[in-house]
């Protein structure tokens, strides 16, 4: 955790940039006499702020952040149905599950884009260009495939007790925007997205400042 905090830039004003005038104005708002120097004040602020962030990163857990109603598909779900499900529910990715509820893989928009226009590295305009030139043949070929044919497997998952710090580290190091959450039996119980993480961080920042 300390390693993560060391690498992570602090949000909001950098305490090192607080001027002596800022400190004096803050001290004026405190009733009574405060026997402390501006340097002491800045050091206390820095340590307190870091401690508060560390507490948040340790206390926040995947089980409390996750969305429990998970949109999911099965291995043998046709890709046309997968795409329709994602569009209808306005999600950019979803887990592929086994019949027993365990996670087989994950499908995202990028998985579709890479198959539709591999030579263009899955860019949206590359997909449009390929589909126009091929008169839709590329897209038609995908309609004959199943979810398991293009899913990313194994999926990167989280435990229900994974801390917010662990979630952020996984998202950052693996460059992902979502991760299924599994219980002790390895069954899917929810999903955590970058939006979930931003929501709790935004709420904390509002309270802190």
Characterise the protein shown here.
The chain has 2 domains: 2-59, no CATH class; 64-208, Roll (CBS-domain), CATH 3.10.580.10. Helix content is 50%, strand content 12%. The protein has helices at residues 2-7, 20-28, 38-59, 62-65, 79-88, 109-116, 124-133, 137-142, 147-150, 164-174, 194-208, and strands at 73-74, 93-97, 103-108, 158-159, 178-182, 188-193. A 3-stranded mixed sheet has the order 1-2-3. Strand 1, helix 5 and strand 2 (93-97) form a beta-alpha-beta unit. The protein is elongated, with a radius of gyration of 23 Å.
Give the secondary structure arrangement, pairings included:
Elements: H1 2-7, H2 20-28, H3 38-59, H4 62-65, E1 73-74, H5 79-88, E2 93-97, E3 103-108, H6 109-116, H7 124-133, H8 137-142, H9 147-150, E4 158-159, H10 164-174, E5 178-182, E6 188-193, H11 194-208
Parallel strand pairs: 1-2, 4-5
Antiparallel strand pairs: 2-3, 5-6
Structure keywords:
6 strands; alpha/beta; 11 helices; three-stranded mixed β-sheet; 2 domains; CBS-domain; about 10% strand; disordered N terminus; about 210 residues
Q: In order across it, which strands form the biggest sheet?
A: 1-2-3
Cα-to-Cα separation, first versus last residue: 23 Å
The CATH class designation of the largest domain is Alpha Beta
CATH topology of the largest domain: CBS-domain
Domain tally: 2
How many DSSP H or I helices? 11
Largest sheet: 3 strands, mixed
């Amino acid at each position: 955790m300390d390693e993560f905090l060391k690498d992570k830039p602090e949000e909001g004003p950098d305490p090192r940039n607080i001027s002596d005038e800022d400190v004096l104005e803050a001290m004026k708002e405190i009733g009574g006499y405060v026997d402390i120097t501006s340097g002491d004040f800045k050091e206390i602020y820095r340590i307190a702020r870091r401690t508060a962030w560390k507490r948040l990163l340790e206390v926040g857990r995947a089980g409390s952040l996750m969305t429990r109603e998970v949109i999911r598909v099965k291995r043998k779900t046709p890709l046309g149905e997968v795409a329709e499900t994602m569009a209808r529910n306005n999600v950019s990715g979803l887990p592929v599950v086994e019949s027993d509820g365990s996670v087989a893989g994950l499908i995202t928009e990028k998985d579709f884009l890479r198959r539709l226009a591999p030579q263009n590295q899955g860019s949206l305009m590359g997909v449009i260009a390929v589909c126009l030139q091929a008169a839709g043949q590329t897209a038609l070929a995908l309609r004959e495939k199943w979810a398991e044919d293009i899913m990313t497997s194994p999926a990167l998952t989280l435990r229900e007790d994974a801390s917010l710090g662990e979630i952020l580290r996984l998202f950052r190091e693996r460059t992902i925007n979502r991760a299924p959450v599994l219980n002790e039996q390895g069954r899917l119980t929810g999903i955590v997205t970058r939006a979930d993480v931003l929501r709790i961080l935004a709420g904390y920042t509002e309270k802190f400042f």
